[in-house]
Specification:
By secondary structure, the chain is α+β, with helices and mostly antiparallel strands. It has three helices and nine strands; from the N terminus they run H-H-E-E-E-E-E-E-E-E-E-H. Strand 4 and strand 5 form a beta hairpin. The chain starts with a helix and ends with a helix.
Length: 110
């Protein structure tokens, strides 16, 4: 009986942690400064504080620009639109809906 209870408890904890949609690596990424499309609005995370994007555009370290409407203009002129859940780190690395390691430059080549 005790084994059954332990097994059920482990199963519940496993399912609960998996249902968040973010791995431990993704949660670490969320702590870094970034911009994110959330509920159709651009949000900025700086030094652990989240706020609405107030500047018309933000320049990332790699030269890409992110506009208030979620439009991203790459340094090479390519343009993309962020969707809900997409985030871009300040170095220009794009993460699609929390997908670990997604890079906007890789999309340009597809």
């Amino acid at each position: 009986m005790k084994t059954l209870i332990k097994t059920l408890a482990i199963a519940i904890l496993t399912i609960a942690s998996a249902s968040t949609g973010f791995s431990a690596d993704d949660k670490d990424m969320m702590k870094k400064d970034h911009v994110m499309m959330k509920d159709g609005k651009m949000m900025v995370m700086k030094e652990g504080k989240s706020m609405m994007m107030t500047d018309k555009e933000m320049m990332m370290k790699d030269g890409s620009k992110v506009m208030m409407d979620g439009t991203v203009m790459m340094k090479n002129g390519d343009k993309m639109m962020m969707k809900d859940g997409d985030m871009m780190l300040m170095d220009g690395k794009m993460m699609k809906g929390g997908a670990k390691g997604h890079d906007a430059k890789a999309d340009e080549k597809k």
